[in-house]
Amino acid sequence: MIAFWTLAVILLASAIWCVTAKKPVYSVVALLLHFAALAATFLTLNAEFLAVIQLIVYSGAILILFLFVIALLSSGVAPFAMGQNRLPRIVYPAALLVLIALGFLAWALAHANVAAAGAPTTSSIGPSGTAGVFGSVADFGTALFTTYLLPFEITALILMVAVIGVVLLAGDRAPYVATKRRAQEVRREMREAILREGGE
User: Which residue, of 51, 55, 84, 174, is most buried by count of CB atoms within 10 Å of its CB?
Assistant: First the structure.
């Protein structure tokens, strides 16, 4: 129960931070924290596969897609201003968090070995990793491609539309067409750019 309430507070706080953050990069960081807490919640339910998939798919793929969207939408708006180097101040808290996580992992592994030596590790929902149990690979695949197939396909379509929209928004408004008029326009724009650079 202590782990559940701790993770619940982290989930709610990170969700509120993600919505209320003024800068989109901070929202992505809050979303990453939310995904990590959700993966830890799956671990408390003996759903190791769902926890790993949560980290690999959402934190490793979807979140990177969001970062690319932010980078593409903010490119060319204004020059980036060089700020102060905040890395030295972040190193010590990050190292402390890593040590705490490693200590928690060592404690969990030690208790898991003790439980495995005494009796088979089971829960009220069944042994971890076996078929027909919450969080198993077989049940996850069956639910994903039968019951939740339509939401899965809709999500894939929405992500594809988002990528196409970002490319159209951040791309060249006048795509290159192999014609003489377009070639003359490109040469004129290049000359103007060179003259501007020389004048500056």
Answer: 51
